[in-house]
Amino acid sequence: MAALAEEQTEVVIKPDPEGPPALPATQPGDCPGEGSGGSHNSSHNGGGGGGVAASSAGGDGGTPKPAVAPPAAAAAAATAAPGGAAGAPAAAAEGIASQDRQTLLAVLQFLRRSNLRESEEILRREARLLEEAAGAGAPGEMDGPGAEATSALLSRVAAAAGPTGPGPGSGSGPGPGACPASAGPAASGAGTGNSGAAPTAAAPAKVGVVAVEDQPDVSAVLSAYNQQGDPAMYEEYYSGLKHFIECSLDCHRAELSQLFYPLFVHMYLELVYNQHENEAKSFFEKFHGDQECYYQDDLRVLSSLTKKEHMKGNETMLDFRTSKFVLRISRDSYQLLKRHLQEKQNNQIWNIVQEHLYIDIFDGMPRSKQQIDAMVGSMAGEAKREANKAKVFFGLLKEPEIEVPLDDEDEEGENEEGKPKKKKPKKDSMGSKSKKQDPNAPPQNRIPLPELKDSDKLDKIMNMKETTKRVRLGPDCLPSICFYTFLNAYQGLTAVDVTDDSSLIAGGFADSTVRVWSVTPKKLRSVKTATDLSLIDKESDDVLERIMDEKTASELKILYGHSGPVYGASFSPDRNYLLSSSEDGTVRLWSLQTFTCLVGYKGHNYPVWDTQFSPYGYYFVSGGHDRVARLWATDHYQPLRIFAGHLADVNCTRFHPNSNYVATGSADRTVRLWDVLNGNCVRIFTGHKGPIHSLAFSPNGRFLATGATDGRVLLWDIGHGLMVGELKGHTDTVCSLKFSRDGEILASGSMDNTVRLWDAIKAFEDLETDDFTTATGHINLPENSQDLLLGTYMTKSTPVVHLHFTRRNLVLAAGAYSPQ
Amino acid sequence: MAEEKKLKLSNTVLPSESMKVVAESMGIAQMPEETCQLLTDEVSYRIKEIAQDALKFMHMGKRQKLTTSDIDYALKLKNVEPLYGFHAQEFIPFRFASGGGRELYFYEEKEVDLSDIINTPLPRVPLDVCLKAHWLSIEGFQPAIPENPPPAPKEQQKAEATEPLKSAKPGQEEDGPLKGKGQGAVSADGKGKEKKAPPLLEGVPLRLKPRSIHELSVEQQLYYKEITEACVGSCEAKRAEALQSIATDPGLYQMLPRFSTFISEGVRVNVVQNNLALLIYLMRMVKALMDNPTLYLEKYVHELIPAVMTCIVSRQLCLRPDVDNHWALRDFAARLVAQICKHFSTTTNNIQSRITKTFTKSWVDEKTPWTTRYGSIAGLAELGHDVIKTLILPRLQQEGERIRSVLDGPVLSNIDRIGADHVQSLLLKHCAPVLAKLRPPPDNQDAFRTDFGSLGPLLCSHVVKARAQAALQAQQVNRTTLTITQPRPTLTLSQAPQSGPRTTGLLKVPGSIALPVQTLVSARAAAPPQPSPPPTKFIVMSSSSGASSSQQGELWILNGEKAM
């Protein structure tokens, strides 16, 4: 498209007149997937870059019991892809190096010119330190984790700078100096790295802290906040712009109004940074009322921030300074703004626009207010259009063919007559469905998946059988809902999961326990002890039955091991394992054969909000307060991938049905889709006005539903990267979402004590995804929430924490009764 | 956009005095103002930061309430050691104190005697978490079971009752709107709720809601049959169960009209047949219905009030007025009426003033039989102290004369004597506490006699007793709580001190509309008088002595319910 090409040139205007320092985050040539992901997070967590395998061994104090094979031997399959991916960044870092050296020199010169001795000193020290790769401890570091860790961190930061776009401050500054030292480890990490992008469990909690604490010193100096405008003039500037925008033509007003919030924030921060406390206060008082209500949470943080010292270490604030706020504005509106600012000689605002905003300019009609409102709301503005351009293979993987003999065996086992006749045609239908390859599906071996075991096949057969008895749902045939109430939970229920075959329910509780209930008459039994097992006749037919200890049979098993509330729980598809994630920073893998903990996966170091098994087992994903989501394999105690880019906590994580992608919902009010293969962010969905708390993929993999604290459920077309629907109705956080087995119904459960059913078919029915919409990303949402709502079911003061469709399309809902 | 959603955020900071107080408590005597100011800024900022983090834990914990543990975890995030010892409190018991121009919030730390703790028996172990399954919805319909919230919340029932003109959008299926209120509420009602826009705005002509009969499902019909049979049947255990069900079940809304008709018809028939036991059962049903918090009874009050009033003032309620204790029924029904007044009386329907008028009219009437007289007085007395003060006390002298003439005069009719006797004790019972409050302490027999005529001396002794009891009560009250400075002496003496404030407005409102009950009462009064039974030697105070055993059981239950 011509527009695209032109836009590139338009973007070029933006590198600010003063010199490069303030714009580390976005380089035009950047990998599109990362986009605004170039936050401090991506840098200190290593982003998709090469991990330092060496450091992990040293730093990892509490290595979990390797109940599984050692990583080197494990899953050679998993390594193939990452190896390649990690090689690239190293080279990229090399390429950028010379450019960055010049940048550094320029910065130093600039600092000297503006008499900022101290900062220059710091920067020099920083740079030298990097050159020597000495472990003297970074300045400003708090209870440093030791030389090794420090150098590991720094080199990692440098390495990460390559692929992700240099992180702020430390990324761009030390880049060149670090290069010789860091390229080595990074490369070697990539070379040896069997865990690919895995940065290390070794970078302990402190690493995050160090990086965060570090940056202000450097980046604060580099940032343009030290420009001394007349503080008294700020209000005038702002109201001048406000007046201009309010007086502009209607078609431009809506677009330009987007500027208010980022300008307000940055002007306020500038005032605070330059220690004009009173001016800052009055500025805030005067204009905070003009901001959109969905920025309220961020504004609250800002309002408490009145001193320069507070800016250090305030994460929300750092996000504003390190990532550019993205605005989408039509060319006409942009020209209008530019002309106005130039006419008025309004340099203060112009500088902010230049340095802290990323204006994504498009040709054509300005967007309407509704169109804008639908998409804004995230912490860092809208997603850039390129961010959603990557191809996503959203189709389903081909189902493995299951041989007939297996069916027969199963038949005998089940002792059911008349089944074979029924089964065969059905199996054929299943086969034919899976035979024609979905054009949107990823290659079958895009990511290595575990082999199907016999038991899995049996389960698949069971699944098919149940499928024949499945209720066809629709607006006229609503599913029944069975509600599982947790009584006497004393407000302590924090997570629930149900197995795919609906036989087990797990609850995570605030008292650190995980409880597993059997909801079928079959009780939970654990395997006998080793001595007893040795007595069993291994040749007998019912050996699987014999190994179970009848004495341990009970309806409920309690799993002890966590040391904080359990915020996430997930059963493995084969029902042999259970994952739980907790406030204590670990994800634990439990065996449902022995009801003991097998592995504690350490890496997050901060509360882990959610975890989920891949639909094919083996892999799982976790996300937490450290703002990253991690991909793990059960037999690796280090993560395989780190998905970094969110600007706030990752609240929920879900696997795509084809296991090639992971969706994460965050408190920064964005949803991201990550490619498991290379760790890239392939979709950024903005539009929610509150932290996202629930995600659900449609069974066909085409759509994603997300629910947030604002009580709205948004529907997304993954292939086109567009919002396709908005379901309004809930009055509180939507904590659970689930599509029916055939995708006809979307069920949503909320803190407002209701379960609602929505007509998913109708919602996705006539989507006009014409080329224009796809290209521009302008969406027009129909106001049809009420037509789509099929039912609302109140519970008795029981928030709906989890929803599940059984194989026959019965809804299971769960929550804890919390008397008012 | 901003115009509709103005934010209000203000930057609140701790007062710098707090810093001083804290510093003093730690032994730092003189802190410069500047330091205080710096400290407050810093501390306020940190506190807000922690609160914001704690909020995150609350959300992830799927709670609506912030707990102390959330704050602990937030502190942990910041690498700060959490505060210990603030766990497991439902609310944080900060106390407020002011004095010397200073206002303080403090955490009350009681001194605890260890031996007390050791010696107290261990509290019961809290119940363990358990899982319970129920049907939230069956194929789109929410079953009306106790596990689910009442199908039609009271507000909705009210909205339907008070705004019946609200019509649905055209095109939406209109059939069975009542059903929609019940079970379908949930299925259709996401839509229903949105339809609330006034129809006028949409340009749709006003339509009356089609009058349709409540369709009861088979289960509901069965339930109705079972319940009504149990309520008037002979098995007391079953009856208790049925009444319990009526009083607590959330899903009775649809059956309400039937119950209401059942009661009013039942009273009509059984009053004629003088079936005391059945009348009692029916009144207990009324009580159970009123106790059910999920029912919106307003629509049926017009049917219930006449029935209850009949049970209060009817001339005859039982076959043997001399022996059966129909007085208890009258008392019970009087309390019910008082309860109805309290709940449903508004300035528009004037229920209370109309009821009061009815009672007064029949009491004032010279020809009113003693039974009706008793009922009227009981009904009035239950309405509260103000009613007693304004309506009963002025007539005490007159009534006393009438009673004296019956009791002391020639024995004409035993029934009259019993009636007069009951009226007398009723008056004494209700008036004494009111008088105890109204009259200054020296209780003089003569003064009472001049004020209240023949009833004076008896009243006097009752008032003295009431005073003694009130004093006792006050002592107990004083001992237990310090806050209540004004003891409530009426607490134990009168069972139903309802609607105190409301009665004040009662006389100002002219109630011109006659209640249907009036006709019922007058009809009764016009009925041929019962032949008086032959006079007997014994005049028994407790006339229930001769009542049948089954009825005694009833009365005992009635009395038991008085306490409720």
From TrEMBL, chain A:
Residue ranges, compositional bias (Acidic residues): 404-415
Stretches assigned to coiled coil: none
Compositionally skewed regions (Gly residues) per UniProt: 45-62, 167-176
Pfam families: TFIID_NTD2, WD40
Membrane-spanning parts: none
Entry-linked Gene3D superfamilies: TFIID subunit TAF5, NTD2 domain, YVTN repeat-like/Quinoprotein amine dehydrogenase
Quaternary assembly: Homodimer. Component of the TFIID basal transcription factor complex, composed of TATA-box-binding protein TBP, and a number of TBP-associated factors (TAFs), including TAF1, TAF2, TAF3, TAF4, TAF5, TAF6, TAF7, TAF8, TAF9, TAF10, TAF11, TAF12 and TAF13. The TFIID complex structure can be divided into 3 modules TFIID-A, TFIID-B, and TFIID-C. TAF5 forms the TFIID-A module together with TAF3 and TBP, and in TFIID-B with TAF8. Component of the TFTC-HAT complex, at least composed of TAF5L, TAF6L, TADA3L, SUPT3H/SPT3, TAF2, TAF4, TAF5, GCN5L2/GCN5, TAF10 and TRRAP.
The protein's name: Transcription initiation factor TFIID subunit 5
Gene name per UniProt: TAF5
An annotated Gene Ontology molecular function: identical protein binding
InterPro entries from the UniProt entry: LisH (IPR006594), TFIID_NTD2 (IPR007582), TFIID_NTD2_sf (IPR037264), WD40/YVTN_repeat-like_dom_sf (IPR015943), WD40_PAC1 (IPR020472), WD40_repeat_CS (IPR019775), WD40_repeat_dom_sf (IPR036322), WD40_rpt (IPR001680)
Bias-annotated ranges (Basic and acidic residues): 427-438
WD repeat start and end residues: 486-527, 559-594, 601-632, 643-684, 685-718, 727-759
Automatic annotation (TrEMBL), chain B:
SMART domains, per database record: TAF
Encoding gene, per UniProt annotation: TAF6
A biological process term (GO) from this entry: RNA polymerase II preinitiation complex assembly
GO CC annotation terms, alphabetical: SAGA complex; SLIK (SAGA-like) complex; transcription factor TFIID complex
Gene3D superfamilies: Histone, subunit A, TAF6, C-terminal HEAT repeat domain
Keywords, sorted A to Z: Nucleus, Transcription, Transcription regulation
Pfam families reported in the protein's UniProt record: TAF, TAF6_C
Annotated ranges, domain TATA box binding protein associated factor (TAF) histone-like fold: 12-78
Family as reported in the entry's similarity comment: Belongs to the TAF6 family.
Region (Disordered): 142-201
InterPro entries: ARM-type_fold, Histone-fold, TAF6, TAF6_C, TAF6_C_sf, TAF_TATA-bd_Histone-like_dom
Stated name of the protein: Transcription initiation factor TFIID subunit 6
Keyword Transcription assigned: yes
Function: The TFIID basal transcription factor complex plays a major role in the initiation of RNA polymerase II (Pol II)-dependent transcription. TFIID recognizes and binds promoters with or without a TATA box via its subunit TBP, a TATA-box-binding protein, and promotes assembly of the pre-initiation complex (PIC). The TFIID complex consists of TBP and TBP-associated factors (TAFs), including TAF1, TAF2, TAF3, TAF4, TAF5, TAF6, TAF7, TAF8, TAF9, TAF10, TAF11, TAF12 and TAF13. The TFIID complex structure can be divided into 3 modules TFIID-A, TFIID-B, and TFIID-C.
Compartments, record wording: Nucleus
